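Late entry, written up from scratch paper. The run itself happened at the end of the previous shift, but nothing got recorded in the book at the time, so transcribing now.
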Amino acid sequence: MQLLDLQIIKILFVEVAMVYLFVYRVASDTGFAPCAEKGLLSLACCKGGQIRNGKVIHTGLRYRIGAKKDGVDYSKDEVYILGTYHDKMLYLAKVTDVVTMEEYFCGRAKGRTDDIYKMSSGKLVRNNRLRDEDVHTDEERIKKDLAGEYVLLSEDFIYLGAEAVQIDLIKKYNAVTRETKVYKGDIAKQLDNM
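Output as recorded:
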């Protein structure tokens, strides 16, 4: 690992009540999820939930952090998301805000790549943006998105995109498949000892 890579990661981790690191594999890096534009990284789609036996299950990363599952409270804890792509660090973000999908798509999403939902008759529905590119157009994908209920936002992030780098942290902490791994507690100290 290059010393600079490690120093950048260490800067983001500070002593607080609790540190959480959520690690997941990004399926594709198109600028949609995560969407890093205009100084804001948003995770508004994908990582919402699953469908099991025809029922929507709230298991996704966005729901877990937004609903404060796993004891996570981003307002008093340091909560980070590490998105990996092809076993490389795509982005590292400190969660600085969490809003409902309704709040996001009725305001902050406007003009952003991930602005694919709108309110209609009191509920979120798919709008026409990115339909021609076949982005989240099937009903199952839409249900999974909406199961997330929350949008994770960061104004404190590193997004590498095409410059994604391979670092030792990924080898040690990466999700094996599409699951999300959660690390908490002494993660900052573990990073110092790498």
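The mean pLDDT is 82.
(Scratch paper discarded after transcription.)
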